[in-house]
Amino acid sequence: SLARPGVIVPQRYKGELPQSFSEDFPAVVAFHSFKGGVGRTTHALAFAQALVNRDYRVLLIDGDMEAPGISWLFEKRLPSPPVSFADLLALAHGDASSEASDTVKLVAERLQNAFIDNIYVLPSFRSTHKLSSLEIKPEHLIQGAENPFVLTHILAALGKSLSVDVVLIDLRAGLSELSTGLLLDPRVYRIFVTTLSGQSIAGTTRLLELLGKRAP
To answer: N or C: the chain end with fewer CB closer than 10 Å?
Structure first.
């Protein structure tokens, strides 16, 4: 179910809660794994296809800046992406408008040319041959921001602008500034993918324990 999640706040939580989204915002779903090679991206793509089969409109984002699997898979069908996730981060970092509204508008306009089988595809980079050219990193956007969950809002606003039902982002393995902001946000549906290997199970368990202590 993609019904709005209820939020139960522990008494020990002293941080400020993110503002709830209104009903006209799409659901935000983040796929994450403690380690790579467990099938996270495959599951994210399968879930996107399952949603499309049920007549949902989807925004699919490749948030793995180190091993952008979705970007590679769509490279032949989208050889010259009009915009990328790296572009969105850079634009939002320098956006003086309220809640990066100018960035959302620009990226939404560009994504009209990246609509494939009822899925808007936002790759990590416009070129998979220039992965080392990222100048503005996720931590630059989040650090010092008044709202630590600003990235969730930007992604949800982008999905709303595109009139999609679900925003689906495939995060890189392990903990990073990008993934942490989304994983700690109670408005985000979090799907954790693991194999039955001891390392993967143990790492996923530790991750869930950490979120249980730190998340609202």
So the answer is: N
